[in-house]
Amino acid sequence: MRKIVLPFAALGLSLMPVAALADLPVGAKAPTFVTKGAKGGKEISFDLAAALKKGPVVLYFYPKAFTQGCTLEAHAFAEATDDFAKMGATVIGMSGDDLPTLKKFSTEECRDKFAVATASPKVIGEYDVALKREGVPDGLTKRVSYVIAPSGKIVMVHADSDYRDHVKLTLEAVRKLAS
């Protein structure tokens, strides 16, 4: 099911029918956090508050590294990383994966272009992205993309298990912020 939450179509996108909204609506203050992650196979520390001082942040949650949809989504974000960077935006992928997995994923699938980080149970809860389905192990996240303005306010939310529109829609939202 596709869910898009936008303020009055201010981002120039069509509103889609919404069955259930994420707990973090547009206009909410994004919870800040610091976590470990990887970029180019090397361990990094990611601090959301520090990243927001540099510009908008595209915080995208994905269920599990090296699964088909997550791999294709990582490839798409890697291809668009330069476009995001031109507008001063940081892209960070988040999952419940462990650090060794993220190191490998950051190189093989993110193509050394952007960082991926570990989403702790606290972060998963604060962003309301826990994947809760019968038979699904704990620690997996839904596929949800947040665009966060430098003020810390969420300006776009896109929740859809299909990875294909996440890059396009987050890029459009960042463009609106840059204009």
Distance from first to last alpha carbon: 31 Å
CATH architecture: 3-Layer(aba) Sandwich
Dominant shape: globular
The largest pleated sheet is described as: 8 strands, mixed
- The overall average pLDDT, rounded, is 87
Within the largest sheet, what's the order of strands? 1-8-7-4-5-6-2-3
**With helices defined by DSSP (H or I, 4 residues minimum), what is the helix count?**
5
Over the alpha carbons, how many angstroms does the gyration radius reach?
15 Å
- Report the structural category: alpha+beta
Helical proportion, percent range: 25-40%
Report the sheet-strand fraction.
Answer: 15-25%
The CATH topology label is: Glutaredoxin
Provide the succession of SSEs. Answer: EEEHEHEHEHEEH
- Number of E strands: 8
Q: How many domains in all? A: 1
The CATH superfamily turns out to be Glutaredoxin
Low-confidence stretches: 1-22
The CATH class label is Alpha Beta
Describe the structure in your own words:
The protein has 179 residues and is an alpha+beta fold. It has one domain (2-178): 3-Layer(aba) Sandwich (Glutaredoxin). Helices cover 30% and strands 24% of the residues. The protein contains 5 helices and 8 strands, in the order βββαβαβαβαββα. An 8-stranded mixed beta sheet has the order 1-8-7-4-5-6-2-3. β2 (34-39) and β3 (42-47) form a beta hairpin. α2 (68-86) runs parallel beside α5. The termini are far apart.
